[in-house]
Specification:
Elements lengths: L1 H13 L4 E4 L4 E3 H14 L6 E4 L4 H13 L3 E4 L6 H10 L4 E3 L11 E2 L18 E6 L7 E5 L1 H15 L6 E4 L6 H14 L2 E4 L1 H7 L5 H10 L3 E4 L1 H12 L11 E4 L6 H9 L4 E5 L9 E2 L12 E2 L4 E5 L2 E5 L6 E2 L8 E11 L2 E7 L4 E2 L5 E2 L1 H9 L4 E8 L5 E7 L5 H7 L11 E4 L16 H10 L3 E2 L3 H6 L1
Parallel strand pairs: 1-10, 3-4, 3-5, 4-7, 5-6, 9-10, 9-11, 11-12, 12-13, 24-25
Antiparallel strand pairs: 1-2, 7-8, 8-18, 13-14, 14-15, 16-17, 17-19, 19-20, 21-22, 23-24, 25-26
Length: 475
């Protein structure tokens, strides 16, 4: 992180009045940002060693993140989209001693530090290193796990991504992903600081990502004319739907739109390319500092997640993607240190020097006939349809494949069958269970299904047949 703080000091000295970070409530140039970070850093002098950030996002989160890091303390973002039970677990598990946040943070029962401490006019101190952050992932069980990352991991990841994104001071980043997620911390905060670029936050765009109306996201695009942004596949699909329905065209200013967090259906990628949206798929996980591979502007290959980041050594072992190198986490909080080579739990292979992700190993379905089916392969056919928010392929105890589908508009079993028609017979679901889009816990924020919840829906919901008796005999 030395590079980030050196860049912040350089921007404040040489481009003090240039725009740095802006949200709906406030805007900071580089001089003001450095002053805010300096003020909060000094205010943390007597603070506990572990600080939580309960700011939902925006400028205050940036100031809090930088100040806690500069103070050498452990930073723990508390995701606003976690349940109260998950948030309580995060605070207890990480031994958080104080919270930076709005007055509502007092409900956590910990001392609250305001994110806008006055600047003591001493200037930014030099970064002494040693700061860590704990990024909590909800996981399939819903009980968050803390991933511990330090200077080695963050610096290696930021510098590698800087080579891919090629950000410059002329860029403007529209921040959409929640800042509690490491990928947005990297691409929406650290990379713009390195480049001296501007970042604009839009709460409405973030809530569009989480299932809210897509209009605020599109309005932010039209208003800001950003050059870069990060989206999830579900938001990309809804954006394309809105364009098809007469919404405004993508701004010509866009040069890099990263998409990840879940499988992006090929048809959605094709639609994005037809609209001249410069989509670049990537792949990563918090345990490897958010990004392992990324398609680059001008060097993107559909069907892959791009080339491996330069400092990493990725090998496919028994079909599984494994990662070694400086971005692999220190370990899980309160757990053993991470091994030198991290086994991701994802199946994959290489194609023409690029990584192809096949799906989660623990989600692989093995039928009674010995067929191996990656659920993501099947689900991507269905979620490509604009009427469907999400889908989950489940393996019933009777060895039948049941597809749980959450539609946003009327969809029939015949429609689902047509979407699966290009799959081999053994991979086609035999029945569909329609679920409410708001079904509690059915989907994670990125749009990926919670398979434990989906299995319960498949077991208890009303099954509607997708095959006739003759076709069922062929599976």
């Amino acid at each position: 992180m030395h590079e980030v703080f050196a860049a912040l000091a350089r921007n404040a000295a040489h481009r003090p009045d240039a725009p740095a970070f802006r949200d709906e409530a406030q805007a900071l140039d580089w001089r003001a940002l450095a002053a805010r970070v300096s003020g909060l850093t000094h205010a943390l002098a007597d603070a506990p060693p572990v600080i939580g950030i309960a700011v939902p996002g925006g400028v205050d989160f940036v100031v809090a993140d930088l100040a806690v890091t500069l103070s050498g303390r452990r930073l723990v973002p508390v995701p606003f989209f976690f349940s109260p039970e998950q948030q309580a677990h995060v605070l207890a598990d990480a031994d958080v001693g104080a919270i930076i946040g709005a007055p509502r943070a007092a409900s956590f029962g910990l001392p609250v530090i305001a994110p806008n401490a006055p600047d003591p006019a001493r200037g930014l101190r030099d970064y002494g290193g040693g700061a860590t952050r704990v990024i909590y992932t909800s996981g399939s069980s819903g009980r968050p796990k803390g991933v511990v990352l330090g200077d080695r991991q963050l610096s290696a990841s930021v510098l590698a991504l800087a080579d891919v994104v090629e950000a410059t001071a002329g860029d403007k980043h529209l921040s959409v992903l929640p800042l509690a997620q490491l990928l947005e911390q990297t691409c929406g905060v650290f990379l713009p600081i390195l480049a001296g670029a501007e970042t604009v936050f839009s709460a409405g765009a973030t809530f569009a990502l989480l299932g809210g109306p897509v209009a605020p996201f599109m309005a932010a695009l039209a208003r800001e004319n950003p050059t870069t942004t990060l989206v999830a596949p579900s938001l990309l699909a809804r954006w394309l739907d809105a364009i098809d329905e007469g919404g405004s065209a993508p701004p010509a200013s866009l040069r890099f739109v990263a998409v990840g967090g879940a499988v992006t259906p090929p048809s959605v990628l094709a639609r994005a390319q037809a609209q001249a949206i410069p989509v670049c798929e990537g792949y990563g996980l918090s345990e490897c500092c958010a990004v392992v591979a990324m398609n680059a502007p001008g060097d993107a290959m559909a069907g892959t997640v791009g080339r491996i980041l330069d400092p990493l050594d990725v090998k496919i072992i028994d079909g599984e993607i494994t990662v070694a190198g400086p971005t692999v986490m220190q370990g899980y909080l309160n757990g053993a240190p991470a091994p030198e080579r991290w086994h991701t739990g994802d199946n994959g292979h290489f194609h023409d020097g690029r990584l192809v992700v096949e799906g989660r190993r623990d989600a692989l379905i093995v039928t009674g006939a010995g067929r191996n089916i990656s659920p993501e392969w099947v689900e991507s056919r269905v979620t490509a349809d604009r009427r469907i928010k999400g889908a989950a392929l489940c393996h019933g105890p009777d060895d039948r494949l049941i597809l749980v589908v959450a539609p946003t508009a009327p969809v029939t079993p015949a429609d689902i069958g047509a979407l699966l028609s290009d799959l081999p017979a053994y991979a086609r679901a035999e029945a569909v269970v329609f679920a409410d889009t708001g079904h509690d816990g059915l989907f994670f924020p990125a749009g990926t299904p919670n398979r434990a919840v989906a299995a319960d829906v498949a077991r208890t919901g009303a099954r509607l047949s997708l095959v006739d008796d003759d076709e069922a005999c062929l599976t």
